[in-house]
Fold:
Amino acid sequence: MLRTVAPPSPSPLSRVADPDRLRTSASVVLRSVLEHGPVARSTIARLTGLSPASVTGHCDRLTRRGLIREAAAPRRSGGVGRPHLPVDVDPSRLVVGGVHVAVPRTTVALLDPRGRVLAERRLRHEGPEPPARTLARAAEGLSALLRQVPDARPLGVGFAAGGWVDRQAGTVVDHPLLGWREVPVREILAGHTGLPVHVDGHARALADAERLFGRAARGSRSALHLFAGNMVDAAFATHDEVHHGPRSQAGSIAHLPLAGGTEPCPCGRVGCLQAELSERTLCRRAGLADPARVVDAAAAGQPSAVRLLRERSRMTGRAVRLLTDVLNPEHVVVTEIGVIHRPDCLAALRAELDEERAATVVPTSFPDSVLAVAGGSVALDVLYRDPLAVSPELN
Structure:
């Protein structure tokens, strides 16, 4: 005689874990739609290893939140069976705001869930100004952009800057060129916008952007991102995670010694990486006020501008060599103005590396909107990691 045994009730641990599994599965489904859409639910199940019922449930939740939508009329496979219903990321309703604060200007932008810049505004700094004033102007700029797209629903704001940015605390701990120390960015921007605010360093933000929306590092097991603007920072990602370290201090490479460097650094040494590669140094050597003008002068055939850009890219190549010797990444992405705009500068950078390593180095995937993407990607990374928590259900 068979004895019926009641199934055990879920343990407290399993009840705690269920929401985590739900969030993780929703993230996996949304990332699959981002990478492969338009894509059928059956294909998502095959790609992710989730059950068809689980995929259908997540697609329903993501659709209600305005994150995905059916991409086309139902298609039948061979005229039999249930129709395939391809879904894709929905760019029509939800946006994130992006704020990037650099030395000469603040860039504000709106991005759709695919990381595409819908609107952008650049706000030049009015000389030295308090951080609260810079952030208030950024919030005003975001409000002006939102008025241009009245049907859009903002999910949150991403903030990025160079220097030491503490993601968990939501603060800029130290940005020496701006003179910012322990600035509560999240608190200030949230107070002005009424939206959730997410904060990170711009090199890490761009590493996340490449991971989600870029060409080279997408799907890579490891990638290095080197940002060379007025600030020089790096980020390293392995297995879909960008390394932050305690208080998000990873990626500070300003004072690494650069072979062949001659530029005095405020720290008292000569040839520090940031002093040598800073756009301030480039502009001073070129006698021009803006690095874009150096690029324009080189495009017009001015030999000194061409020489300066190639030399800066060559020195950037030495920095890449130094970092890749330690980290050995599969891919290297470089955000540097010469490499972005001139093939000869990319060649000069690669010439500092051995042939195998040189082939892994590419420019940023966002040459025309890199700062706007940096800010917005901080919020988009949070969205794709936990879409059920970040995105409200739409009526």
User: Anything to note?
Assistant: Confidence is low (pLDDT under 50) at residues 1-17. The CA atoms of residues 232 and 274 lie 5 Å apart. Residues 12-36 form the longest helix (25 residues).
